[in-house]
Amino acid sequence: MSFDPTSLGDPLARTAVCPPLPAPDDDEARREVLFVLHDVARLIRVEADKRAREHGMTRAQWVILVRLERQPGLTQKELAEAMEVEPITVARLIDRMEARGIVERRPDPRDRRVWRLHLKPAAQPVLAALHPARTALARAVTSSLDAAAIARLSETLMTMKATLTAEARAVPRTASASPEPDTIAAPVRELA
User: Fold this and answer.
1) At what angle do helices 123-142 and 59-70 cross, to 10 degrees?
2) Together in a domain, 13 and 75
3) How many other CB atoms sit within 10 Å of the CB of residue 140?
4) Domain count, the chain
5) 100 and 178 both lie in a single domain
6) Got the DSSP string for 25-38?
7) How many Cβ atoms are within 10 Å of 82's Cβ, its own excluded?
8) How confident is the model over 143-184, as pLDDT tens digits?
9) pTM of model > 0.70
10) Residues 89 and 173 in one domain
11) Which tens digits make up the pLDDT trace of 45-98?
């Protein structure tokens, strides 16, 4: 079965005709990659939202369950960083999931200020129901790719992620928000 972009509910996918990509060494081709990655990620989020709702969850709750299944004992801060949301957002989601009895906060044995997040046994049936939905989504997204193309795509995306992660770690957070040195120097000279 091949992938039908209209199944993701994207009105642009039905009518959009993709222009031919420029030569690979062209900056335009590199910029086009960003647009395509953004569009694919958006379509996946939309479909994941729909599938999560079918199980009485939000996509964010689904992500938390899967992350905690893979990495039990994450802190709310670590989870917020991984999800690229504010810690208060994760705290509220965990409050709801804790009320449902599927997640629990446990004190960190080395730091009493820190709470570690763990799945409760009640999360297992929820995960069991979500796994087929995740598999179906992954198959829908990759249905037109053979195994070699999936491996290349995965390797390429992991390389891109590693590059961006390394660059983010190399640049201090405040440096990105700081004005250029020349714009700082003038007011400082005036104060002197």
Assistant:
1) 100
2) yes
3) 20
4) 2
5) no
6) TSHHHHHHHHHHHH
7) 14
8) 999 999 999 999 999 999 899 888 878 876 554 444 444 434
9) no
10) no
11) 999 999 889 888 899 999 999 999 999 999 999 999 988 899 999 999 999 999
